[in-house]
Amino acid sequence: MDPETKAMKFRVRIPNSNYQLKPDMNCTVTVKYNENKQLISVPSDAIIFDKSKTWVMIFKDKFSIETREVEVYRHIGNTTYIASGLQPNEKIFSKNGLLIYNAQNE
Q1: In sequence order, what E strands does 8-77 have?
Q2: Is 103 helix (H, G, I), strand (E, B) or coil?
C-alpha cells in the first residue's frame, strides 16, 4: 500500500475481448470472496462491545429483553456476521441497543 496515495497496485487478469480496457488505465476494483458458510448477519449497529466481549440485545416480548453474548465472525461494511450465540429468526434491537443495554445492566 502506497502511504501517500493510499492505493495498492496488483495484477488482475480480466477478459478484454472488446478492447475497452487500455494499458495504464486506472480503475476501482471490488473484490468478492465467497465462503461456503451460512452465518447469521445483523446490522453492525446492533453490536455492543463492553467488558472485552460482544453483545446483542434480544427482544422476546415487551416484558422480556435479554442481553446475550455473541461471537463475531467478521465485520463487512455495515453488516456483522455472527459465528455463535444467536439463532435464526431471533429478534434483536438494531438501533439504540446500547441505551437498552446500559439501562438493563446497571
Answers
A1: 40-43, 48-50, 53-61, 64-69, 71-76
A2: helix
